[in-house]
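Researcher: Structure prediction, please.
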Amino acid sequence: MTVTEHAPLSEHTRFGLGGPARFLIDAWETDPFLESLAQVRASGLPYVVLGGGSNLLVADSGYHGIVLRFRGNRIAMAGDIVTVESGTELQALVDFTIEQGRANLHTMTRIPGWVGAAIYGNAGAYGHSIMESVDRVRFHDGWLSNGECEFSYRESIFKRRKDWIILSAEMRMPEGDPSALRGEAEAIRATRDAKYPPTMKCAGSIFKNCLVRELPAGVAPPQLVRDGKIPSAWFLEQVGAKGIRRGDIQVAAYHANLIYNDGPNATAADVRAVIADLKQRVFDRFGFWLEEEVQYVGFDD
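Model: Predicted structure follows.
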């Protein structure tokens, strides 16, 4: 376990933005992490538990409390069950399951971040979500079955119960041919790298895609609906989002749902201002609010 005072959180987020945490506690084993969590809670100081920071925006002033991270990263397979700790890089789990000839997670290749956060946000891509593979989840106070995790599109019970900290998961996936899975994963990797270059300082798509059942009647072109959803990028394109710039924060000229840090003077405040602007434009034109995928830390609201 390590404790770092005044740890710059910009070094731990994909945006590369954000001020320092009062303390950053990293633990690689379960018991020290749980002991630290109990002591922090007993102290009464504000705290937050983070993952890999890939889908996170930290305030420019930082976080005036304690940041904890569980960094256990073991993966093991026994029978048809894969056990993985929440601090594991998602890509490491994807690669492991491909080599073991297990399908479904291969479509998540190149999604950055850690497994715990992927479960927290029910990450997914190209027709699969991680909820399909989760058998049960160990959190700081026991185990939850798949059903008890209350998964839905980019949602889980852990988003509503942020005090329930994911430690590991047991996963079960159908068999697949490793060579075929690897080939499909490589094709997805090339597509994602073209859209979200690995060196780009961004959080991927900023907004969730829109569930048609939750939209005002008549705003969703039927030809764009896939699996009951319509890309939020389509609505953003209609309101002129592509290419918007505020300081060193840029909306991609080729993708209306991609905001990235494009210079040394970029700020988290500018990211939030651009997000607010885009949400307001869509509301004014279509009568509903887009919902962010990105999570916020350190902001007053």
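Model: The radius of gyration is 19 Å.
Researcher: Thanks, that helps.
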